[in-house]
Design brief:
This protein has 319 residues and is of the alpha+beta class. Helix content is 18%, strand content 30%. The chain has two domains: 191 residues, 2-Layer Sandwich (Alpha-Beta Plaits); 74 residues, no CATH class. It has six helices and 17 strands. It has a five-stranded antiparallel beta sheet with strand order 1-11-6-7-5, with helices on both faces. Strands 3-2-4-8 form a four-stranded antiparallel beta sheet, with helices on one face. A four-stranded antiparallel beta sheet has the order 12-13-14-15.
Amino acid sequence: MYQHLERPEPLFGHIFGDLEGFLVTFTAEQARFKRPDARPNELDDIRQRSWPYPDKAEESAEYLISQAQAERDAYFCVHLFREPGNRRAANAAAKVRTLWLDEDGGHFPEDGPQPTAIIMSSRERRHLYWRLTQAVAIEWAVAMNRRLAAWAGGDTGKAGAASVLRPAGTANYKRHPQVDLVGGRITGSGPWEPEVIDQAVPELEEPPSSRTKEPYVGPEVDLAPYLEASEVLGELSDGLGTKYAIVCPWVHEHSGGDRSGTRVGQRTNGALWFHCDHEHCQGRTWRDFRRAVRPIRTFTVNPPGFTGTNLKVKVRYDR
């Protein structure tokens, strides 16, 4: 349902849903208000506070509005934290309900998944949000935020787990004496299935150093047995070969058992690969994946002269 956003609380509800934790607010004064030689957008008198969410949602919203009325730029962290007092990534809550993007000077493609909320941080700049049908691991969300930002030509630096953005109902003093009021809307789109977002948003381009520079000369290996031994969520488009979204064999190690963010595939030159966005799986390769999966194939054999029931032989693949 379409809804204008004129205060922070409806945006908080849209982003956080039924999650609990600590909401962090961040406010500051433009340094050039008191020091004409200050750098553009240099901030002074920085104040950071933590609020139990959802219990103090309204109180935190009133605080942000009052700070804006006192000619201070006001921000909030776009996900919750486990403990009060800091907004370090290591303190981030394990789950989020919403993805985010600071378009900065870019623009999100019109043919992409439409955002569920849009905040006008100034006359020409937008912050976009995608509410999901279920909570996902913060690691997966950060990786997806980077893909969204890269696709839009936006600020990839705001994709991380310590990012702050502007809430509705405040004001932007960057271009003072021009003051931009911050407002927005719930668009009525979505919510989105994480798998749909994962398939719709292009992968980040691999750095040149990580690409296969020479033709693959390893043993020919069939991907199919490994797919049969995994839970396949769907095939994904890939110009370099075949790619599938699967449930990670280490899903029990993911925060909250999140099933998204894992892919496996085969390049056109025959090379096999595995990647999982989750922090626990960083550094795991195809070799680790094949050891974890070790597919089993069953064959029926009929030895000469044998008259009994058909024999079934199970073969476990080691590579």
